[in-house]
Design goal:
Radius of gyration: 36 Å
Largest sheet: 5 strands, mixed
Strand content: 15-25%
Strand order of the largest sheet: 4-1-3-2-5
Number of domains: 2
Shape: rod-shaped
Number of helices: 4
Order of helices and strands: EHEEHEEHH
Number of strands: 5
Helix content: 55-70%
Structural class: alpha+beta
């Protein structure tokens, strides 16, 4: 047996795209009628169909997510009147609808901005940790190479003293090792500097 249900939904249900959600749920349930915003901040839906379908529809209206928060669903039952052909959103005047549309878009953008700030913050923290790990790791490598350089220098000095005929080749190797150590140091500083610049860019984004 078909019935009519007049439903009033209260909570955070306006300017969040709730009417469109109600319409889709009702259409999937095979109901006819309409949904509209009321001046007191609630949303009213009048629907007709099989009682079982209406009850299933009512359960799905209890939505709680980042945008929509339904606090109460009040229902009044009556006989179906057969005046509807389909389920639709009933709009108010154009000015009010445009304002609500802009308000909804504003809230979405605000949420996106907050999410982006959170993402930038996590990225900055990750870069900071990476920078510290890189600096520590490169310092260890640089220290090891420097130590090896000193040790090899000592060994080469000994060889050079004992075997003057290979002195020129030994000096060349010593010079190449010194250059390698200097290049590694410069590369380390450049990479750390780049990481710092990325962190500064993220700071500016977080401040916006």
């Amino acid at each position: 047996m078909k019935k009519r249900a007049t439903v009033v939904i209260s909570g955070d249900v306006q300017d969040v795209g709730f009417r469109g959600t109600v319409m889709r749920i009702a259409q999937k349930a095979g109901l006819i009628g309409y949904v509209e915003n009321l001046p007191d901040g609630t949303v009213r839906a009048i629907c007709e169909g099989e009682e079982k379908s209406i009850r299933g529809f009512l359960k799905k209206l209890e939505i709680r997510n980042d945008d929509i928060s339904v606090e109460k669903v009040a229902v009044k039952w009556s006989k179906a009147q057969g005046r509807f052909k389909y389920f639709e959103v009933k709009y108010s005047d154009l000015g009010a609808e445009m304002f609500q549309g802009f308000a909804t878009a504003g809230r979405k953008l605000s949420t996106m901005h907050t999410d982006l700030k959170g993402g930038f913050k996590e990225t900055k923290e990750g870069l900071s940790d990476l920078k510290n790990e890189m600096k520590g790791g490169f310092n260890k490598v640089e220290t090891a190479i420097s130590s090896m350089h000193s040790d090899v220098n000592t060994r080469f000095d000994t060889l050079e003293t004992r075997y003057g005929e290979i002195g020129h080749d030994i000096k060349t190797v010593k010079t190449d090792m010194a250059k390698l150590t200097a290049e590694l140091h410069n590369s380390t500083e450049a990479l750390i500097s780049l990481t710092g610049k990325v962190g500064a860019l993220i700071d500016r984004k977080l401040a916006e």
